[in-house]
Every structure is written in C-alpha cells, then in structure tokens.
Amino acid sequence: MTRWTSDEIARIEAADELELAALRRDGTLRNPVTIWVVRHGDDLYVRSAYGPDSAWFRGTQARHEGRIGAGGVEKDVTFVGAEHDIDDAIDAAYSNRYGRYGDRFIRQMTSPDVRATTLKLVPRSASS
Hints:
Layout: H1 6-15, E1 17-22, E2 33-36, E3 38-40, E4 43-46, H2 55-63, E5 65-70, E6 73-81, H3 87-98, H4 103-109, H5 112-115, E7 119-123
Antiparallel strand pairs: 1-2, 1-5, 3-4, 4-7, 5-6, 6-7
C-alpha cells in the first residue's frame, strides 16, 4: 500500500484546508470542495461536516476514489471508511487543529452523524 511521505503530510498540514474531488462512476472528477483535514499518526482523515447526506460524501461512496490537493500536493487517493476505534483520537485532532474556529464547529465535527463519515485518505500510486 502506498503511504504519505513526511513532506506531503507536512505540506498538507501547513495548508489548513484541503480540496477534494471524488471520481464519478464514469471516471471524471466531480467539482472539488474545500474541507478540513486532520492527521492521526502517518495517516490523513476527513469528515463530512453535514453528515452522510452531503453531496461530496455521497460522491466518495460511488467509486471510493478521487483526488485531493493542498499545500502544493496533488494526489489521487482512495477513500477508506475509518475504523471506529480511533473516533476519539480523530475528534481530538479536529479540536486541536481547528478549535480556534469555536466550540460550535468542533461540536459539529465530533457529532455522531459526522463521526460516521470519517474517511481515511490513502494515496494511490501512479499505476493504480
């Protein structure tokens, strides 16, 4: 499995937000959305702030593939549902990284519906 390089993770973290575009069934990219991204260990995670009914999240469920961009890093990725045993760690990562925006946003990002949308971003190699 392909992993993020330390340079890629550092550049994405420095960018604060991420552009994400899911692949449609026909292989074309959907319009990108700007979302928050957090790191846990050497992995990157995103959540749908508006839960599973958000258009971008539903789009990730069609093919589980897409492209992300942040901090000068552009990468094809696979969207993998996160294991729920790390939900608390992901909550803490959102709170630490984005807490400056206020409790209302952190409560939203750590609500049960939003937690259920946690996706791990797994980089795909050029040959994938």
